[in-house]
Amino acid sequence: VLWMAARAPSLPTGWQPRAGRMLAAILLFSITFLVLSPHVWLDAQQAMADLKGMMDQYATGHLGHTIEPGLPHLSAMTVYMASALSPNPWLGWLLAALAGLGLVTLVVEREEESWIFLIVPILYMGYFATQRVMLVRNLLVLIPFAAALVAIGAGFLGRAIPNRSIRVAYAGALVVICGFNAVWMTRSALTIS
Q: What is the DSSP string of the chain?
C-alpha cells in the first residue's frame, strides 16, 4: 500500500504529496489494525502480557522448532522461502532465482521506492532471525512479497528476450508453472478440514 501510494502515476509528484499519501496509507493501516484487533485496545494489559509471553517463548525455544538465532536462523528462513514457492524443488529454486532477479530489478529501477516495499520483509526476517524458534507459519506473511518479486523478475527477464518466439515460449512456460502451482495450492487448501 505504501509503495502504491508513493508511486501513483496519476497523482501529483514531489515529496510532499507522496509523504501525504504515505501517511494516509499508514493511518488507514493503523485504523484497520485497530478495528480488526479489538483485543489490543479493549484489554491492552492482557494483550501486552500475551505479546511478552510469546516473545519469551520465542527467545528460549519451542519443542522441535528450536534453532540458533542469527545467521543459521536467517539461512533456514531463506531456504524455506525458496522452497515454499513451489512443491517441486526445481521450480521452487527457479522461482527463487526469479525473485532474486526481481529484487535486483526493483532496487535498480525503482531505487527510491524499493525500500518502501522491502522494509516489511527486511524487518520481519531480521526480527525473527534473532529468535530461537522457527515456525514456518510465521513466514507465510512473506509469500506475497516473494511472489511480487518473482513477477518483477519474470517481467524483467521477459522484456530482455529479443526473439518474439522465445518470448512467447517463455510466457507459456510461466503459465504452465503458475498453473502447476495453482493446482497444488488448491489441492492443499482442500485438505484443510
A: -HHHHHH-TTS--SHHHHHHHHHHHHHHHHHHHHHH-HHHHHSHHHHHHHHHHHHHHHHH--GGGB--TTHHHHHHHHHHHHHTT-SSHHHHHHHHHHHHHHHHHHHHHTHHHHHHHHHHHHHHHHHHHTSSB--GGGGGGGHHHHHHHHHHHHHHHHHH---HHHHHHHHHHHHHHHHHHHHHHHHHHHT--
Q: What phi, psi does 37 have (nearest 5°)?
A: -130, 65
Listed residue (9, 25, 14, 2) closest to 113, CA to CA = 2
CA distance to 22, 98, 106, 132, 151, per residue, from 3 (Å) = 8, 20, 12, 32, 16
Q: Is 157 exposed, middle or buried (0-12, 13-18, 19+ CB in 10 A)?
A: middle
pLDDT tens digit string along 13-49? 677 777 777 788 788 888 888 888 888 888 889 988 9
Neighbouring C-alpha atoms within 13 Å toward the C-beta of 113: 19
> Burial, 151: exposed, middle or buried (Cβ in 10 Å; 0-12, 13-18, 19+)?
middle
Mean pLDDT, all residues of the chain: 84
